[in-house]
Amino acid sequence: MTAQLSIRDLHVSVEGKEILKGIDLTINQGETHAIMGPNGSGKSTLANTLAGHPKYQITQGDIIYRGESILDWAPDERAQQGIFLAFQYPMAIPGVTVANFLRTALNARRKATGTNGSGKPISIPEFRKLMREKMALLKLDDAFATRYLNDGFSGGEKKRVEILQMAVLNPELAVLDETDSGLDIDALRIVAEGVNALMGPNLGVLLITHYQRLLNYIKPDFVHVLVSGKMAMSGGAELALQLEEKGYDWIIEAEAAK
Predict the structure, then answer these.
(1) Cα 100 to Cα 149: distance, rounded to the nearest angstrom
(2) What is the CATH number of the domain that holds 34?
(3) pTM for this structure?
């Protein structure tokens, strides 16, 4: 099994304040890892750091993706090479349709990776077919393709379009930052079904969530608890059930006692 992502002693600061304080994590191909933790523990900081957000300064450690350090990679280079981030709060981009956005992103990825041996842009008929297939998977009406990206979308629609991006771009590493936040039970189920349909032996998934309910639908291989910028505990899927029952206080107290 090949390591898709290896995070080594990662320390990250934001505006001079240290948020992550030595994170170690390895995600192999085909594995799904969930990171849980109380608010302010550093979960979204980790997601944004992996995506290359310039606000987050790495002061120590390394991020190895498919055997190569990516500390010097720009955000667009990371995305083109198959690192995907589904945002907790997707932004609206008025004037840019969902279809144009996704075709541009897909062509950039194809060019960077030489997909199909040449990296040529996807033809319009081929792209339309791909879009229809992936939109049906996520129960999105075809009309979404011509709407402006996230402009006037409900919370559930925004999250489904995030997973639509994942489906079209076909990444090797998917980081889902609290994809369940703001979703009702029906939207949550649809989003989870879409993620499950995209799972495969070449995809590594990092689910970041505050609640166990998402993990009722997407079963993780491993669950990690992040507290005050450190990995306080790791285990299997049963750990999430413990957290649902007992909360985080017992882990926070144990971490404080160290």
Answers:
(1) 9
(2) 3.40.50.300
(3) 0.92
**Structural domain for 237, as ranges:** 3-257
Give the pLDDT confidence score for residue 212 in this predicted structure.
85
pLDDT at 226: 96
Three-state SS across the chain?
CCEEEEEEEEEEEECCEEEEEEEEEEEECCCEEEEECCCCCCHHHHHHHHHCCCCEEEEEEEEEECCEECCCCCHHHHHHCCEEEECCCCCCEEEEEHHHHHHHHHHHHHHHHCHHHCCCCCCHHHHHHHHHHHHHHCCCCHHHHHCEECCCCCHHHHHHHHHHHHHHHCCCEEEEECCCCCCCHHHHHHHHHHHHHHCCCCCEEEEECCCCHHHHCCCCCEEEEEECCEEEEEECCHHHHHHHHHCCHHHHHHHHHC
Q: Using 50 as the pLDDT threshold, list the residues of the chain that sit under it.
A: none
pLDDT of residue 115: 63
